[in-house]
């Protein structure tokens, strides 16, 4: 299911949605295959990518 929007979430918003700390997100996003975009010195995560990643985790 393709859910979410093109809205960009901050690392903190993404971590909150995943129920983890921001540090855990920063340490693991690449190995988890979660798509991120660098904006300035910060990571941003597209809402639809986070939702799709969660959907794949729930199906596993």
Automatic annotation (TrEMBL):
<dbReference type="InterPro" id="IPR009061">
    <property type="entry name" value="DNA-bd_dom_put_sf"/>
</dbReference>
<dbReference type="InterPro" id="IPR036388">
    <property type="entry name" value="WH-like_DNA-bd_sf"/>
</dbReference>
<dbReference type="InterPro" id="IPR041657">
    <property type="entry name" value="HTH_17"/>
</dbReference>
<feature type="domain" description="Helix-turn-helix">
    <location>
        <begin position="8"/>
        <end position="57"/>
    </location>
</feature>
<dbReference type="InterPro" id="IPR010093">
    <property type="entry name" value="SinI_DNA-bd"/>
</dbReference>
<dbReference type="Pfam" id="PF12728">
    <property type="entry name" value="HTH_17"/>
</dbReference>
<protein>
    <recommendedName>
        <fullName>Helix-turn-helix domain-containing protein</fullName>
    </recommendedName>
</protein>
């Amino acid at each position: 299911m393709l859910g979410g929007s093109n809205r960009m979430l901050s690392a903190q918003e993404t971590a909150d949605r995943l129920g983890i700390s921001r540090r855990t997100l920063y340490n693991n996003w690449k190995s988890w295959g979660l798509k991120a975009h660098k904006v300035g010195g910060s990571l941003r995560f597209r809402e639809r990518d986070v939702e799709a990643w969660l959907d794949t985790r729930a199906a596993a």
